[in-house]
Here is the input.
Amino acid sequence: MKLVIAATGASGAIYLQRLLAQIDCAAHEVHLVMSAPAGEVAKHELDDFKIPSNVSRHSENDMSVPFVSGSARFDAMVIVPCSMATLGRIASGCSDSALLRAADVFLKERRKLIVVPRETPWNLIHARNVLTLLEAGAIVLPAIPSFYSRPGSVTAVVDTVVWRILDQIGLPSAHTYRWGEKSRKRKKN
Here is the structure.
């Protein structure tokens, strides 16, 4: 699978970290684009932000990367976390960076685009931008964790969102808690 993973300056760098950790980056071609604010947030929120060595990193200003062209075949793009500013720029058709152009290409080519906003509460502008992206074919997957797996740590809470992202891109995790499956025992922490 060929994937574009992007991050913007919203809080929630741990979602990006856990997603990269759970994708088999040796088996899949993974390209990473981080906005400058995303890098700053990751440094602020995580003591040891790690990017797997076989992930191809790209500058947000490099418009020569393959995934900014509709002729390049990619399977999915995930923007995690996605700031409401980025979501709004995508909704308006702005494509003045590699990250925004890639999102525009994924929409126009009808490829899977998943945006993971973490911001709350929303104002009416946010809601309208989300609606625009939904109407354009994007998957909007807010970073809203679930608790029926009884997560016992921050990482376990984050993973409930990451598992949903993995399901959406077609790379489900064997560790995903599935409602109604009795084979997994819940841990009490």
In short: The longest helix spans residues 154-169. The mean pLDDT is 94. The chain has one domain: 2-169.
